[in-house]
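Figure S4 source data
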Amino acid sequence: MTQELEELVSLFRKGDTRALAKLITMCEESEDKARRIIDMLDVDTQRRAHIVGFAGAPGIGKSTLINRVIEEYRRRDLGVGVLAVDPTSPYTGGAVLGDRSRMNRHSVDPKVYIRSMGTRGQLGGLSRATRDAIRLLRAYGKDVIIVETTGTGQNEVDVARVSHTVVVVMMPNLGDTVQFIEAGPVEVADVFALNKADLVGADATMAELRSMVQLRFASNSWVPPIVKTIGTTGEGVKELVEWIEKHYKYLVETGELRQRERRAYLYEVVDLTKHRLSTLVDSEIGSDSHALEKIDFLDGSANPYKASDNFVKHLIERISGHTQQKL
């Protein structure tokens, strides 16, 4: 395994796309493999790249719009990586929707890498493997990394924790626009894209969005612009990309970029810690069929809080012993 991994990393450093794909697959397979890969790549995983998240409801045209955004970045001779995060199939464990099908025309471009990834049950829409894939794309040298989320409403704000710039995509005729805004990931928006702007009702929706932005973001140093786009024709996409790049420049100049990356890092550390502790609890119970029976439940005075304290103490002792063995 070690020799195979070293060979893959060597090919990866030479720009081999198949090696990139295999390493991402290995990250999806297990946390242990992901840890070894990230350890081997070390500081390369922190190479400069603009991470752009696209959020919005299903059927709003995110994938079609992103297809045009890729074209615009390629006109600027920038390398692009795309992670289309879809719901996970309960049968295969893979991504259900496969949004990359809308972007297949770019598959022959060596400077574009597109990958569908499952949420793996994460409510926020981004799994641990997605964050590892972002690191791999940074190490691979992509200039722009686009993360498209599942469109799961408010839970979609998770994309803001890994992105430098968040594009919230909307469209006309969603019913009560104000109510939709309240339910969506609006608070994390850096840029709004009013897609399918050729539909009837686009001007009314635009007016509502402008009023909302004035109310919510007036006191902010960065006020999100609203860009009309038509994903099927590419109209407005050049302006959208220009605003995305302006936002990145703003982040760099104000020092906010560093702050966002720090917050993302701390969130991931906490998330990984919670996951590992949860795994440890399941493992402890699974490896000892009598583990639950050892938890006090004697009579009417049984106290679940006290029992939980004792169980946590036991787990800490186990972790401490395991750490000392490694050292």
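Figure S5 source data
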Amino acid sequence: MTFEELLRTVGDEPVFETGLLLAGEENPDSLRVQLARWVRAGKLYRLRRGLYALAPPYQRVLPHPFLVANHLVRPSYVSLQAALAHHGLIPEAVYVITSVTTARPGKWQTPLGAFLYRHVHSAFFFGYRLEEVAPGQRAFIALPEKALLDLIYLQPERSLNAYLRELRLQNLDRLDPQRLREFAERSGAVKLRRAADLILTLQAEEEAYEAL
């Protein structure tokens, strides 16, 4: 395969896996050698084994970090601070994309950003949806209620009230109270049921302040 053939095949893909290139009669060993050469030449980014993205100036589509996060580790969905910032619930910009996975926890440092993965039991792997994050790109992201509960669930034990206020939560009207309580109950965690009550108290406080 030539680089021109590669561009014709994956030029419009934000990221691609080697399996996409092996659909024809391409020799796997020869393909791996060629991909390694293009990475060394700066034409490709190697994100992990078998996962690549085109590098500038050949990159026609800028991969969204959330889409990259989904592809690096499967199954996973973007959550915690990254999802909270996406939903407008915290004011800070987030530079490390944290996801939840039932696979092993870990951290990936790639040319397209830093990605952190937190492990949860399969029973707690819910509360996310597929969203369009850029034209033609979709990623699994925690619903705002689940992103907040994931964050609390994965934090060491400490004062919940103090921790929630430290987060400087905003736009709490975007939270669905019923969904928040349902997710907290479904988790079976006493800490999350308490957290749901405190979050709804903060939501009521925000509403009262805005009404002044």
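The mean pLDDT is 94. The radius of gyration is 20 Å.
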